[in-house]
Amino acid sequence: MRRRALLALLPILLLSACGGVQSVLGPAGRDAEVIATLFWWMLGGAVVLWLLMNGLLIFVSRIDRRPYSPRAAEALIIGGGIVFPTLVLGILLAFALSEMPRQREPGSGLTVRVTGESWWWRVEYLPDGASDPVVAANEIRLPVGQRSEITLNAHRVIHSFWIPALGGKTDMIPGRETRMSLEPTRAGEFRGQCTEFCGESHALMAFGAVVMEPEDFAEWLAKEAEPATSPATEEARRGAAVFRAEGCGACHAVRGTAASGRVGPDLTHVGGRVSLAAGILPMTEDALVRWIRDPEAVKPGAMMPGYDHLPDADLRALAIYLEGLT
Ligand code: CUA
């Protein structure tokens, strides 16, 4: 009996793990709240159905010990098989349909254009009325309490954009722009993930999602629009020289310098991001060294070549330079 009770507790234990930065059950956005509510309603409906069906099963398994009544059997089939499921599913459908229009509402003010690359995210911010985007990568920042428009594109193959704590997911399709809007309800750091199989490193295509107070966001965006700061230390200057000598600027842009490549992520403010390699490594000097030395070991199939031919001191200087680009 005790073992059965413990088994019954298992689902609750599993659900208790559904928290944290990448969970639909810890909503931090208006759309995610709807999804979480819908989930609990669906779960409630499923539990009621499960109990009823098992009750019926136990009831009919004992029926041969009672006098057979065709009318009771008919009532069971019509009531349990048609009326009850129609009622439960009808209520769930009505609830879901009433919530759906809110999720289609367009955003106002800020537009964030996100493009799925292999296997990272190109991110462009277009504040209201702006024609030139502020280019960033691998991190989405949004102001709290405002509905922002998210336009989605894909380069080469399909991806899917999902920040579980903020809202539902939307596919990203090459040659066709899709859209969604998100309205965060509390500030914090969350995590997004590509949710459409897109190749070798699909599972390693994540990103940080940072929700900020509107004034902090405005301040951050203004800073993000600025060109890169000059390297402040001797070591960082040496790193910048390695960056130039190795031709990193052919693929990466660092605004304010000669580096203007668009093949890889924009690195103008890379040191200010919460993570490296699209949500896979922490933004630290060691992680930068590890990534630059051998990206293939971190993200199989990544287009970035390895720089393991560089002496450790050069790699370290490069990492210090990039970490300083905040
Ligand atoms: Cu991109 Cu999966």
Structural key phrases:
five-stranded mixed beta sheet, 326 residues, 12 strands, 8 helices, single chain, Immunoglobulin-like, alpha+beta, binds dinuclear copper ion, elongated
Give an overview in words:
- The protein has eight helices and twelve strands.
- It starts with a helix and ends with a helix.
- The chain has 326 residues and is of the alpha+beta class.
- The structure holds dinuclear copper ion (CUA).
- Residues 116, 119, 159, 194, 196-198, 202, 205 line the site of dinuclear copper ion.
Output the CATH topology of the largest domain.
Answer: Immunoglobulin-like
The count of DSSP E runs of length 2 or more, i.e. the number of strands, is 12
Helix content: 40-55%
The separation of the N and C termini measures 59 Å
Number of domains: 2
Q: Report the uncertain regions.
A: none
Short synopsis of the structure:
The protein is of the alpha+beta class. Helices cover 40% and strands 18% of the residues. Helix 2 runs antiparallel to helix 3, helix 5 (234-245) packs across helix 8 (312-323) and helix 6 (285-293) crosses helix 8.
